[in-house]
């Protein structure tokens, strides 16, 4: 599956059962919408939610936002029918919860054809099988399900997320090794801006591409945290210019702000500027 090159700073869960929320999502500054048929929909509303979501997607109006449908697990009463209905809606991707191994993705692929697949990484088994999951030919992105994972691991809450560090790291390694996008888990206290900002900064420092969100009020913080800052952009431009000047003089390294700049730093700098261009293009659509 080709690597996603577009921004994924913010991936907002929207209940597939709520027409007002589906309508509001058309105006929100999120990079991706995770249309949810799973946790956000009660058991007695799941069948109706498929039709509600299908009507919303058929109406359109979501612009350049990535449209991803999270279905119920295939071993539930709704999963298989969700998968078939989601495929008919022609989303950008289908998100499968409770992925434990590549066979789960293969079962979904048999139902939906060549639509890109995303995997919820939210069980201890998924952590141990992360490399094999990331290697699946149709997998485009991993999404951390930190609430379910914390429940299964029986962790205590810590603001630094130390109890989840091993799990987050295993999935990050697997995703990066197989060129998958990887999106961090939700922050539950949606009114706690400082806490959200700290967790977004932590996720960005670790290497996540973005953050899953449960409320529109969280969008600005996530978009800012996962965008290159003005200082980062300025440094990237100066690194590229200095290295190109050094190359023109037959040198293999340059010095910027007292630090060595080599090929690998220039590659990172170019990625930073390319991300800025991609964000600008997304905002213009």
- Average per-residue pLDDT, rounded, comes to 97
The number of helical runs is: 12
The description of the largest β-sheet is: 8 strands, parallel, barrel
Strand content: 15-25%
Describe the protein in words:
- This protein has twelve helices and ten strands.
- With 285 residues, the protein is of the alpha/beta class.
- It has two domains: 10-225, Phosphoenolpyruvate-binding domains (TIM Barrel, Alpha-Beta Barrel); 230-284.
- Helix 2 (46-59) packs parallel to helix 3 (79-89) and helix 11 crosses helix 12 (263-284).
- It is globular, with a radius of gyration of 20 Å.
- The two termini are 25 Å apart.
- The mean pLDDT is 97.
Brief overview:
With 285 residues, the chain is an alpha/beta fold. 47% of the residues lie in helices and 16% in strands.
Write the layout of secondary structure elements.
Blueprint: E1 10-15, H1 19-24, E2 32-36, H2 46-59, E3 66-70, H3 79-89, E4 93-96, H4 102-112, E5 117-121, H5 124-128, H6 130-134, E6 139-144, H7 146-153, H8 165-177, E7 181-184, H9 193-206, E8 210-213, H10 219-225, H11 230-248, E9 254-256, E10 259-261, H12 263-284
Parallel strand pairs: 1-2, 1-8, 2-3, 3-4, 4-5, 5-6, 6-7, 7-8
Antiparallel strand pairs: 9-10
Helix pairs in contact: 2-3, 11-12
């Amino acid at each position: 599956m080709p690597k996603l090159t577009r921004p994924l700073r913010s991936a907002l869960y929207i209940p597939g059962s709520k027409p007002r929320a589906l309508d509001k999502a058309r105006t929100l500054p999120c990079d991706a919408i995770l249309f949810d048929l799973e946790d956000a929909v009660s058991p007695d509303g799941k069948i109706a939610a498929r039709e509600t979501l299908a009507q919303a997607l058929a109406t359109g109006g979501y612009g350049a936002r990535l449209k991803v449908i999270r279905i119920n697990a295939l071993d539930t009463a709704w999963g298989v029918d969700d998968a078939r209905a989601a495929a008919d809606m022609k989303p950008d991707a289908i998100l499968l919860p409770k992925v434990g191994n590549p066979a789960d993705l293969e079962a979904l692929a048999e139902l939906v054809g060549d639509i890109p697949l995303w995997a919820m990484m939210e069980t201890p088994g998924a952590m141990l099988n992360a490399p094999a999951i990331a290697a699946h030919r149709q997998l485009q992105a991993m999404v951390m399900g930190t609430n379910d994972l914390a429940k299964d691991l029986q962790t205590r809450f810590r603001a630094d997320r130390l109890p989840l560090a091993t799990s987050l790291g295993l999935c990050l390694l697997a995703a990066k090794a197989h060129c998958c996008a990887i999106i961090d888990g939700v922050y539950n206290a949606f009114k706690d801006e400082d806490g959200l900002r700290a967790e977004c900064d932590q996720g960005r420092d670790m290497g996540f591409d973005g953050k899953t969100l449960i409320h529109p009020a969280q969008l600005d913080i996530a978009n800012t945290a996962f965008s290159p800052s003005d200082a980062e952009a300025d440094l990237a431009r100066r690194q590229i210019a200095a290295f190109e000047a050094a190359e023109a003089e037959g040198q293999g390294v340059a010095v910027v702000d007292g630090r060595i700049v080599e090929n690998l730093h220039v590659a990172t700098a170019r990625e930073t500027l390319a991300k800025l261009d991609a964000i600008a293009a997304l905002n213009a659509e």
